[in-house]
Amino acid sequence: MSSPAPPLALIAELTHRCPLACPYCSNPLELASASTELDTATWLRLIDEAAALGVLHLHLTGGEPMARRDLNDIIAHAHARGLYINLITAGVTLDAGRLALLREAGLDHIQLSFQDAEAEGGDHIGGLRGGHARKLAAARLIADSDIALTLNFVVHRANLERLEQMIALAEQLGAQRMEIAHTQYHGWAMRNRAALLPTAAQLDAANATVTQARARLAARLRIDYVVPDYFAEYPKACMGGWARNTLLVDPTGRAMPCHAAHGIPGMDWPRLRETSLGAAWRSAPFERFRGTGWMPEPCRSCERREIDWGGCRCQALALTGHAERTDPVCVKSPDHAMVAALAAAAGNDASATVPVAWQYRSAKPDPTTAR
Ligand code: SF4
Ligand code: FES
């Protein structure tokens, strides 16, 4: 067996602790407690191994990565190893002093999440009163610094009506880039799917709004737009293809190709307290869906097999009970009818109103054992 090309990006899920409780959180339903998180020395070792492997980008995420007291040490270490460092944060605990320390440590980029364009919706979706105002303050501080800023909006049935205001907010706040991502149905979002799926009218309006905004703002604001899987013809290349260029480490030190792979049965994920990042990248669970050799029909003989790599294994598992099946989002999948039915049911059901009775992500921070 030939060696796989090295990963380009390491996603470090430093913690599952978070002051917010978004109902579409991609963290697992069983959240890791602070006492089970990797310690500082292990993260620093993993950063050394990542740099030696050829990783260029480090994405620090969670939960809320700012809940880690050793965040600056981790950033400084990665900076010294020449990695480009992106912090993915809700921003509600960021103030001028903290930002100055992050900058001094060598942080390159912040991806700041917003739950809505205004406080009422934002606080309701994030489950934190006053959260939206704190995010606005954080965005202004970052925009005034030399750290690059991307604003991230997860959109769904309960906030799509305000998409134009979200774009206006990104403009006003001076972001260089904006990401508008329809909800992906993993983790908590799967549990709340019925309340989050957009209507057909909302989706048409959102597509038109994004097209117009891109034309109007081309020179000032880059807008990345992730369309909702269930309404698409073909799936996305999830994570750029299974174990092709990205490796994720969860708070407890399990190495996986994506944030939802822990749910795939029969996979013995490498534990990085006991093994190296390089060994994990070459391990059997990473090989399982790498490339095209594992593919069933219709993927096996499809001309798109090296474009979308068969879509998302975790979505195939969630919808069909089998991770090895073609992603049912694909029109060629024998299971596509179930996705089409879900999209049609949601698309025609405009009855849901805000506030929505969804189930919030549970488990708030556990400060007593925080690292
Ligand atoms: Fe992609 Fe497989 Fe569908 Fe072809 S059949 S478009 S490879 S998911
Ligand atoms: Fe796991 Fe798509 S989220 S492969």
UniProtKB/TrEMBL annotation:
**Superkingdom as given in the UniProt entry:** Bacteria
Name the Gene Ontology biological process terms: pyrroloquinoline quinone biosynthetic process
Q: Any idea which UniProt keywords this protein has?
A: 4Fe-4S, Iron, Iron-sulfur, Metal-binding, Oxidoreductase, PQQ biosynthesis, S-adenosyl-L-methionine
Example of a GO MF term: cyclase activity
Q: Which residues form the Radical SAM core domain?
A: 4-222
Q: What PROSITE patterns has UniProt attached to this entry?
A: RADICAL_SAM
Q: What is this protein called?
A: PqqA peptide cyclase
Q: Which organism is it from?
A: Endobacter medicaginis
Per the UniProt record, the lineage of the source organism begins with:
Bacteria, Pseudomonadati, Pseudomonadota, Alphaproteobacteria, Acetobacterales
